[in-house]
Design brief:
Layout (H helix, E strand, L loop, with lengths): L3 E5 L2 E5 L3 E7 L14 H13 L4 E5 L12 H18 L4 E5 L3 H9 L5 E4 L9 H8 L3 E4 L17 H19 L4 E4 L8 H9 L12 E2 L5 H7 L7 H13 L4 E4 L2 H17 L3
Parallel strand pairs: 3-4, 3-10, 4-5, 5-6, 6-7, 7-8, 9-10
Antiparallel strand pairs: 1-2
Helix pairs in contact: 1-2, 2-3, 3-4, 6-7, 8-9
């Protein structure tokens, strides 16, 4: 963990310990049922839970990117986000919120009109040619995730010569484009589970410290994913202990932000990791 800062709406937020990002899916079909919040009551309950458990950032998604999920129109995505953000802001007006979208149009409205602070793009700008310029114009932090293809066909694009070297190279190209446009606050996400085989996911986790070459905050999102459930032969509902184990390993390999369904467990992992690392400094 390297201290980092984010410029959010003109205010500098400094982080000296790892950050926990809690997932709020305002969708009816996200892969983990407990993270879904589709009615007004479910959304409000989920927001209160995330806040109570200590989420530093709330990541709001209105488009399920799990393999095989139904396509959602931009209009439907915006409607879901609008409703979700109205409820979220009524409960937590000061919370830092990222919008999980690959559409520039949705990102623009989410930040400019709905009160989102950060754009979290699973496609790294590859699915919408206007995304990078939109983020530059919004002057907001941007989460650059690695993925090939689309959520529907991404698992057809796992042919890497060397998964770590190739992901680093492809992210590096995108970072150059963002720098040219003047985007300064960028968070890097290797994209666990997106256009990666199970073995490639574990290789990326092994090599996670190499992503420090970008001198950007590193986000890791492995919460309850199939790289865990398939490896252990368990259900998504039973994947919290292994998720916590992987999150702790990620922290030890340089992760700065953990994107999770279970904020309390991740917060405890961060506190244990911080207690151990800080003890070595005395």
């Amino acid at each position: 963990m390297r201290p980092f800062s984010l410029n959010i709406r003109g205010h500098l937020h400094e982080y000296n310990v790892p950050v926990v990002m809690g997932i709020l899916n305002v969708t009816p079909d996200s892969f983990y049922a407990e993270s879904r919040a589709f009615t007004d009551e479910e959304i409000a309950r989920r927001v209160r839970q995330l806040i109570a458990h200590g989420a530093d950032i709330i990541d709001v998604g209105a488009y399920s990117s799990r393999p095989g999920a139904a396509d959602v129109s931009a209009a439907e995505e915006k409607d879901r986000l609008k409703r979700g953000m109205e409820i979220l802001r009524s409960i937590a007006p000061q919370a830092i919120v990222s919008v999980d979208t690959f559409r520039a149009e949705v990102a623009r409205i989410a930040v400019a009109e709905l009160g989102c602070d950060i754009v979290n793009d699973i496609s790294g700008g590859n699915l919408d040619p206007e995304m990078m310029e939109t983020v530059a114009a919004l002057r907001c932090p941007y989460i650059l995730m690695h993925m090939r293809g689309t959520p529907t066909d991404m698992q057809e694009f796992t042919d890497y010569e060397d998964v770590t070297a190739d992901v680093l190279s492809e992210l590096g190209d995108r970072l150059q484009q963002l720098a040219f446009l003047g985007v300064e606050d960028i968070i890097v996400d290797p994209g666990f589970g997106f256009s990666k085989t199970m073995e490639q996911n574990y290789r990326l986790m092994h090599d996670l410290n190499l992503f420090g070459i970008f001198h950007r905050p590193i986000l890791v999102g492995v919460s309850r994913k199939s790289m865990i459930t398939r490896k252990l032969g368990i259900t998504t509902a039973d994947a919290l202990p292994a998720t916590t184990a992987l999150n702790t390993l990620a922290l030890d390999r340089g992760a700065d932000i953990l994107r999770v369904h279970d904020v309390e467990a991740a917060r405890h992992a961060v506190e244990m990791y911080t207690a151990v690392t800080s003890a070595g400094k005395h």
